[in-house]
Specification:
The structure is a homodimer of 312-residue chains. With 312 residues, chain A is mainly alpha-helical. Chain A contains 16 helices and two strands.
Chain lengths: 312, 312
Amino acid sequence: MTSASEISAKAIEILSHHAKFLFPNHDFAEVYNYSLFPAGKLFRPSLCLAVGMDKSGVGLNEIGVRTSLASASAALEVHHTYTLMHDDLPCMDNDDERRGRPSSHIKFNEWKALLGGDGLLNASYRLVSHGEHPNTALAVKIFAWATGPKGLIQGQVLDLSEEMNLSFDNLLKTHELKTARLIQLSLILGLLYSSSADWKTAKSLWRLGHAIGISFQLIDDLSELSEVNPGEHELAVNPWLTMPDQCQAKLVQEINLINKVLEEEGLRNTKTVLDAYFDKMRNVILEYSEMILKHINESGKSSDLSPLMAVL
Amino acid sequence: MTSASEISAKAIEILSHHAKFLFPNHDFAEVYNYSLFPAGKLFRPSLCLAVGMDKSGVGLNEIGVRTSLASASAALEVHHTYTLMHDDLPCMDNDDERRGRPSSHIKFNEWKALLGGDGLLNASYRLVSHGEHPNTALAVKIFAWATGPKGLIQGQVLDLSEEMNLSFDNLLKTHELKTARLIQLSLILGLLYSSSADWKTAKSLWRLGHAIGISFQLIDDLSELSEVNPGEHELAVNPWLTMPDQCQAKLVQEINLINKVLEEEGLRNTKTVLDAYFDKMRNVILEYSEMILKHINESGKSSDLSPLMAVL
């Protein structure tokens, strides 16, 4: 069985390979490379590669770095990185740090971070359309729809306009568009560039990606409460402080669905990647559960995380 | 013979049709629609449609609004519009006006103009991959390369870093990447989505698009000097004030090449679109020739525009 860290290492190898020919022979290439490397945990590319392995029955060593599947995995990371560069800009979230280093507009300047993001966005389409697979045009269509004005972008709009805080439904809609769409896309690209793509499986994977995205974001929100002082903004918007029971019930439901689909579809490598993530998050939540419950209780709600810990 | 204004009207019809389903049923759709409409002169979509007509031998009425050719023409305008939205932002050119109206970040705010631009960028790939034409994947590959880190984006980088002003070669490189690439792409998409795409024609059209792009930008620079007071920045960077003879020689050379390729490739509709543009610009330059020559002479150079007027 391939481990999650082996898949992640492959994703880095692929991304590094493609970065070499994507950027111009000019000082500005530093803006792209600084933002992409050292790479993050490569969750999205790993999911894409894992589904590709599961649905083609191939091992990690059989995936060439320039195949459609490999290029698509790089496209996902390049696209994700552009969203982070733009999200960090002063007019958006105004974050000076990213992965423990100065964010791109601090390291360089604003116009370089803006254009660098635009460059990566275009480059992601260069990557997803790489290769000669018969599903290429379809992959691009779905990619552009999922990330575009009706997809990821609208999720960012709902987030920034703070419409997400108006109701639990709005919160889920925002998480679906801003977080789940790119994860759904990761699974679908893995399937489209495998040897056994069909609509029934696509539908299951789409639902699976939705569940992963919602869980990912709800767990992330919960882990934010592990801080001694989460900050005023966090205390105002964290859904676990205003709707803890709804958050927990939804998260438990989605985790159960994830396990069910992984089993039904025989997604062994995909399960490995997800387990590594859930294990890490379970440990964070267990380690800081006192602090997390303290914040929830202080907000006037009471909660018991045992239903969640039973499935996580 | 179809007129340039009929082709432009068709491009508007196509763009309006696609805009209806590209954007979410949400207030934010106003950001997209405000930036796209009322549409500009639609030079790029018109060139795309004209090449498609020329190379398929079809009339304007035979082009369905949802064909690959039509969708690609809309993709070009949507992509061009995103570049304008981002170019106008405070950290870039900081322009408060666009087409005589407040630019998007003035009308809305900065994050809306930034995300609106990102949304249009993704939407342009949704459009260029629309339809079932066998050349779709190839069209996307070329689109992403021409507009990406080694293409249009690098042209914006050279422009903003003012490297373009260091030499005439740098100026041409900037114009090639920032302006010509999208025009070359307009012609190539018209060809790829026509019924007679071949590599030899693609090569001619690529060279033609380069010549149109360089001419377009040099004529634009020249027409900026028709103002009584062109402004300090313009006087500092306008290449006609520092290198008038090189600018004119290059422009004459490119216009001659344009006419030669139009003739050789039998591009009758494409010629109509270009003639309408050149006629308009010739009239501007003729009307303000005294003012233009005054600025050139005041910069210490002398020039005689008769070689240009002989070919324009």
